[in-house]
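ok, trying the design again with the full structure, not the truncated one.
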């Protein structure tokens, strides 16, 4: 009888362990932006992937990096600039995928009739510090022989604000132009208080790729869970690419609580399509431009080949027959 009772306890413990394993928690840091929507959607389908995803939304990518350094996250979605700055600053991360391309636009006040980057000379230009838009803005200014700084005296005076605040500042004519993310740039244009000057993809960076990063500990020590998460990422992204109506409904209704219109969403995603892939070459070019323009102020810029790891992504895409 004692032996039988002991066997039942062992069996119960094994079942409990199996159940706990099926519901292992992954802590995800994300941003409230249209092209970050597929990453957010992972938590909705996580149970069928055998995991539970706890998402925490941050104001900007550098905040995600700080949470990773503090040990509060396993996975983070950021612009490449924040990931690169984070790695340079000691964040123990690896890049495992790229989840969106583009997602930036130089928008100006309609009354100023700004048609080119050169016409930004003497103007106040808003941008979010620690975002890829800052890298793109500095690359554009350098390309046109202009210098920008938050302090007066340079060709362009930079005004650092969060994404929603940039739109309010442009609307209130506190800034003359902004290098803005999506869907905020599309929203400014559709509401009539902004006009597009350009999509800033004609520098060496090209279309910036947003990065999905994992902590080195999660990537190496929780490999089975990391594999499940990556398959979930690929499945969520495939759903958003193949079924745009699902993507729009989720982003507009769940993430933005109907604060953006269908036109805002459609325009935003045309300028920031969902994707899977990233390369060490793209991260290295972005790192080099950051170092050259002083964005991130890195003492030792990281070498991309040391921390871009796409093996999990390749395996996940193969298992789900995604090209």
């Amino acid at each position: 009888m004692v032996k039988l009772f002991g066997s039942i306890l062992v069996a119960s413990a094994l079942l409990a362990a199996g159940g706990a394993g099926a519901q292992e928690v992954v802590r995800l840091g994300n941003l409230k932006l249209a092209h970050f929507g597929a990453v957010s959607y992972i938590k909705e389908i996580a149970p069928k992937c055998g995991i539970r995803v706890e998402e925490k939304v941050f104001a900007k990518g550098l905040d995600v990096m700080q949470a990773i350094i503090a040990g509060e996250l396993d996975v983070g979605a950021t612009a490449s600039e924040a990931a690169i700055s984070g790695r340079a600053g000691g964040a123990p991360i690896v890049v495992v995928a790229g989840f969106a391309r583009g997602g930036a636009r130089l928008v100006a006040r309609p009354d100023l009739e700004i048609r080119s980057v050169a016409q930004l000379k003497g103007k106040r230009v808003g941008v979010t510090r620690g975002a890829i838009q800052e890298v793109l803005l500095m690359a554009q200014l350098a390309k046109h022989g202009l210098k920008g700084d938050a302090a007066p005296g340079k060709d362009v005076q930079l005004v650092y604000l969060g994404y929603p605040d940039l739109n309010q500042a442009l609307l209130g004519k506190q800034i003359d132009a902004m290098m803005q993310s999506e869907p905020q740039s599309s929203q400014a244009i559709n509401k009539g208080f902004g006009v597009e000057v350009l999509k800033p993809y004609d520098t060496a960076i090209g279309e910036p790729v947003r990065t999905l990063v994992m902590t080195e500990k999660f990537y190496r020590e929780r490999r089975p869970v990391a594999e499940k998460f990556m398959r979930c990422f690929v499945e969520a992204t495939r759903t958003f690419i193949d079924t745009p109506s699902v993507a729009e409904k989720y982003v507009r209704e769940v993430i933005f609580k109907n604060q953006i219109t269908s036109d805002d969403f459609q325009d935003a995603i045309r300028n920031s399509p969902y994707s899977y892939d990233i390369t060490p070459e793209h991260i290295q070019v972005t790192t080099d431009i950051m170092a050259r323009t002083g964005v991130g102020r890195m003492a030792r810029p990281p070498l991309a080949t040391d921390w871009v790891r796409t093996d999990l992504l390749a395996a996940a895409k193969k298992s789900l027959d995604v090209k």
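Keeping the full-length input from now on. The chain has 13 helices and eleven strands.
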